[in-house]
Write a structure and sequence with these properties.
Helix content is 23%, strand content 28%. The chain has helices at residues 3-12, 62-71, 119-129, 167-171, 180-193; strands spanning 24-29, 35-37, 42-47, 76-78, 85-87, 90-97, 100-105, 145-152, 155-160, 201-207, 211-216.
Length: 220
């Protein structure tokens, strides 16, 4: 695991309600406060919202955003101390023209199911969620994307529908990356039932409408 990605993940998640120092976290839908149990080193967080779909592209509730920051990685993140954009799943990026952004991707990253991260994951995720017929919940998060193209296994190009200066901010926020083979097989509903990301926590149980149990990703 590259130290820069580890640092990026920690900084990007400082504002999250779920503490990344817990070895076991359970997001429980209820009305009780957050409780830390010393005996099992667990953090239990209650929320008053029901998560209809754990896939970050198919919900727009607070608890979904919190979960997203724990389970998935973004291409870029914004350092909360300096406000600078830094690499997460991407190591560098540059604008080729007003509508074309090229990104170099980080090597050696694995998803929770063991699949290795590469350009195919970026291309499939972005092309899928940006199609209106796939009905991503918050269209404004993805409707600026015309298409994503693979240049080589660790280099991609994102073409926008129009000049879109906020692209970097969106890639540092709501745009997470899914493992392409798994996502192509199970789709948003399968991702809801068994979420798979590359972040510092992995989902081990999702009891629909009741709770989501996370454990620390030892490979992060």
């Amino acid at each position: 695991m590259d130290d820069r990605r580890a640092g990026a993940g920690v900084l990007r998640r400082l504002s999250s309600v779920v503490c990344c120092l817990a070895a076991l976290a359970a997001l429980v839908i209820g009305v009780t406060p957050a409780l830390a149990a010393k005996k099992d080193n667990a953090l239990r967080v209650a929320d008053d919202q029901v998560l209809d779909n754990a896939d970050p592209y198919f919900n727009n509730v607070r608890i979904g955003v919190i979960l997203s920051h724990q389970v998935w990685d973004t291409l870029i993140y914004r350092d909360p101390k300096t406000n600078e954009y830094k690499g997460q799943l991407a190591t560098s990026w540059k604008w080729i023209d007003q509508k074309t952004l090229e990104l170099e991707l980080r090597r050696g990253v694995k998803f929770h199911n063991g699949a290795e991260f590469d350009a195919d994951d970026v291309v499939y995720t972005l092309n899928f969620v940006s199609k209106p017929e796939n009905k991503a919940t918050t269209q404004s998060n993805v409707d600026w994307i015309d298409r994503a193209e693979k240049l080589d296994p660790y280099r991609v190009r994102i073409v926008t529908r129009r000049p879109f200066p906020a692209a970097i901010e969106y890639l540092a926020g709501p745009i997470v990356i899914h493992p392409h083979a798994y996502y192509a097989q199970v789709g948003p509903q399968g991702m809801n039932q068994k979420p798979v990301g590359s972040g510092p926590y992995r989902v081990v149980e999702h009891a629909m409408g009741k709770y989501i149990r996370l454990v620390r990703n030892p490979d992060y």
